[in-house]
Design goal:
This protein is α/β, with parallel strands linked by helices and about 775 residues long. It is built from 31 helices and 27 strands.
């Protein structure tokens, strides 16, 4: 008998868990404690049995809440009535965070119901068991390893053997099946991991989308022991439950997330910096798409609740309206009582003058003309989003003078640039750290983790590109354009670039570009199933592009999104959107099977807009530094769709301006950073050629007689070995992907025959 999952992975995990303080409960004992009946048939035993260790839960409940006087089983009855969905799970999390309530009959008032003692972990009971079976009358499941705190199951591990192909994916599929068939399990269970003894992936229940499942990283690479002992360490599991699971609404849907290691690291670093009396500055650089908003929200919440902060004021400063609403919604979801929205300069000044304690959400420009020494307390913590652009110039001066003893922590999604401007950000926030950063998660890190994708670019045909000297003189060589940090600033520079704008908005050119975009989209992007942005130089250009594009594509393919104003021209008013319609467009664009497929934009949606199905950006607006990085980062979000077998390979930018021809000038950042993200599409051609020459030739050699019976027999014999098949499928899929992306292109002409043969071999195998 060869070692099954149990012998290898599962037994090891149980051993490591015991080593870090969990008590092992054998399966028989666990089933007894759940009220299984040993006299009935095994299939009947698990039917509707308790999902808790009832006696232990009841005992702990009374120990932690001496005034709790309800009958035994009352709380369990309450838990059984929670919805078996993400909403029931959210209510359960509130209970796990000791925010459930019970009525104290003696004092006639409500009290918090304590289920877990986070301050003195030794008072809790930590147990681990295996083969956790449950049957709801329709379906039965059996989870491999389950971890319980005070009789409540909170974490499940699915173990697969490493010799199974795609073992982790199988483990995750199993977790998905449990959600569908026995959702009762996931009212109390919060975290899951899937492991094959090599990889160790983790996520939260009710969110099994591939891009929200992460690899747990440990100093000792590749060792199961190190991973289990660090992930399942009691303080780590308690921290996940208490702090690092977040619920947030997006497009009217409730979502659940877990903070990743780099986010947790930054929250911890920000909190300890803020509570350090000797230091008052810090800069957190987390590349775009790595969850910076949640990191800020969590840091704010942790500071607000920190005993050492002593009833602080936490200022969360955002630089965009749409983020402000999202931020307020997400903060409200954390159940924080003390939350204020300072929507005007006067309101902000008043809150600070009146010494308000709690979290204030405001926008950076509300600091204009703030009086000096408005509040001298030192337990004021200011968290600033997009710090590279918001504190430049006078706003930062007002802020620092108004709150002279506060701690300022800047968050940025783009690296600090090498211009004079960037040095300012460094001086303001990074002055107390040797590397200039309190915490860093670089572009290269996030590509390695798969949280963002690399970007490939291609230049449009020469006749459409801006003449070099015009681009250089009116844009790239301007001192004031260096380090340009936001789009409003960029637009002012472009207003003055008269020849540049005239060239970009030439009538014939707009027709030409629109036709090129339509053909490119039809041939290269639509077949892959993805969507695109067309970025015009200004609102007028967007309106013209819409008219031109409608001649080459069905009108419903594209929509224009920009901010309208009352004194707009007739042309601009044609595309004004009311907020409801705009929300609808944003939502539909994010869905694979809905129109529009192309959004025409110039400012709105170029920052902060997140749509993983967005693959291509047709760039017809000169941009550089932070604005360029932020814009192109719209297309680097990973996307997977199992039903359609789609996995987005990278993001793609087609440049009609010629900016990418001058990369080192357009992106004044560390070259390591830039090389990590932006690559020329020519590299894909080199890769394709190499694969066809080195890998494909061996397979092509198997065909001697143009696919007659003999050839087919040879193929079947050759690929009987599953390892060989696996290797071939992997190579073919990569070659096919490259072919799809490069095509149509004259470069592929010499490879067409061989590629056709290779595809035929794939069909047969």
């Amino acid at each position: 008998m060869k070692p099954g999952e149990h012998k290898t992975v599962q037994a090891r995990i149980l051993g490591y868990a015991e080593a870090v303080g969990w008590t092992f409960v054998p399966r028989e004992e666990a089933e007894q404690r759940r009220g299984f009946d040993s006299d009935v048939l095994p299939a009947e035993r698990a039917k509707n049995r308790s999902l808790f260790f009832d006696d232990l839960l009841d005992a702990k409940l009374r120990e932690f809440n001496p005034r709790y006087a309800e009958a035994e089983g009352a709380l369990l009855g309450q838990f059984r009535h929670l919805h078996t969905d993400i909403y029931g799970n959210r209510e359960f999390v509130e209970h796990l965070r000791n925010r459930g309530k019970f009525f104290d009959h003696e004092e006639k008032r409500e009290r918090d119901l304590i289920l877990i003692d986070y301050d003195d972990p030794a008072r809790n009971v930590f147990e681990v068991t295996e083969e956790w079976a449950f049957h709801n009358g329709h379906y039965g499941t059996r989870e491999d390893v389950v971890f319980l705190i005070n009789g409540i199951p909170v974490l499940v591990i699915e173990c697969k053997n490493a010799n199974k192909d795609e073992a982790i994916a199988l483990g995750v599929d199993q977790i998905r099946r449990y959600h569908r068939e026995t959702p009762e399990l996931f009212v109390s269970q919060q975290l899951f991991t899937a492991t094959d003894a090599i990889g160790f992936s983790y996520g939260v229940s009710w969110n099994t989308v591939r891009r929200n499942i992460f690899n747990w990283k440990d100093e000792e690479v590749g060792k199961l022991e190190a991973k289990v002992k660090s992930f399942c360490a009691i303080p780590q599991v308690l921290a996940f439950l208490k702090d690092y699971i977040v619920f947030a609404e997006k497009d009217e849907e409730l979502n659940k997330y877990i903070l990743r290691q780099h986010q947790i690291g930054a929250v911890e670093a920000a909190v300890s910096r803020a509570l350090n009396p000797r230091r008052t500055r810090g800069l957190v650089w987390h590349t775009q798409g790595s969850g910076k908003t949640f990191t800020m929200i969590k840091a704010a919440e942790r500071l607000f609740r920190a005993p050492g902060a002593d009833k602080p004021t936490v200022l969360l400063m955002i630089d965009r309206n749409e983020l402000e609403d999202q931020m307020l919604k997400n903060l409200a979801a954390l159940g924080l009582g003390n939350l204020e929205h300072a929507s005007s300069i006067a309101r902000l000044n008043q809150l600070l003058r009146d010494d308000y304690r709690g979290i204030i959400v405001t926008m950076i420009h509300k600091f204009r003309d703030m009086p000096a020494n408005l509040n001298l307390r030192s337990n004021i913590y200011v968290l600033i989003d997009e710090a590279h652009r918001t504190t430049g110039g006078d706003l930062g001066n007002f802020l620092m003078a108004g709150l002279p003893n506060a701690t300022f922590i800047g968050f940025t999604g783009t690296p600090v640039d090498k211009t004079v401007y960037g040095k300012g950000t460094f001086k303001t926030f990074g002055c107390e750290d040797d590397q200039g950063y309190l915490h860093k998660y670089s572009i290269a890190d996030s590509i390695e983790d798969g949280t963002t994708l690399p970007l490939y670019y291609q230049l449009a045909p020469n006749e459409m590109l801006v003449p070099h000297e015009t681009l250089d003189k009116e844009f790239l060589s301007l001192a004031e354009a260096e380090g340009v940090a936001d789009i409003e600033e960029l637009n002012k520079i472009l207003e003055r670039a008269v020849n540049l704008k005239n060239f970009l908005k030439g009538k014939d050119r707009i027709q030409q570009v629109a036709q090129f975009v339509a053909e490119h989209y039809r041939e290269n992007v639509e077949p892959l199933g993805y969507k695109a942005f067309l970025v015009g130089v200004d609102r007028e250009a967007c309106a013209h592009y819409k008219h031109a594009l409608d001649q080459f594509l069905p009108p419903e393919y594209s929509e224009v999104v920009y901010t309208g104003s009352n004194n707009d021209s007739k042309l601009l008013k044609e595309f004004h959107l009311d907020p409801k319609k705009e929300r609808q467009i944003r939502k539909s664009f994010g869905k694979l099977d809905q129109q529009p497929k192309i959004l025409i934009v110039t400012e709105k949606l170029l920052t902060g807009f997140d749509a993983p199905v967005l693959y291509a950006m047709y760039l017809d607006k000169p941009m550089r530094d932070h604005t360029l990085l932020q814009a192109i980062a719209r297309v680097n979000r990973p996307y997977e769709n199992e039903a359609q077998e789609m996995v987005k390979p990278h993001g793609f930018v087609l440049d009609f301006v010629g900016i990418f021809d001058k990369l080192e000038k357009a992106l004044a950042f560390d070259s390591d950073e830039i090389n990590a993200i932006v690559k020329d599409l020519k590299l894909l051609k080199v890769l394709f050629k190499n694969k066809m020459e080195s890998k494909a030739s061996d397979y092509l050699g198997l065909i001697e007689r143009n696919f007659n019976d003999k050839d087919v027999d040879t193929l079947i014999e050759h690929f009987r070995d599953p390892e060989r098949r696996k290797e071939f499928f992997k190579e073919y899929k990569e070659i096919e992907m490259l072919y799809e992306i490069i095509s149509p292109d004259a470069f592929l002409r010499p490879f067409i025959g061989d590629y056709g043969t290779l595809s035929a071999i794939y069909q047969i195998v």
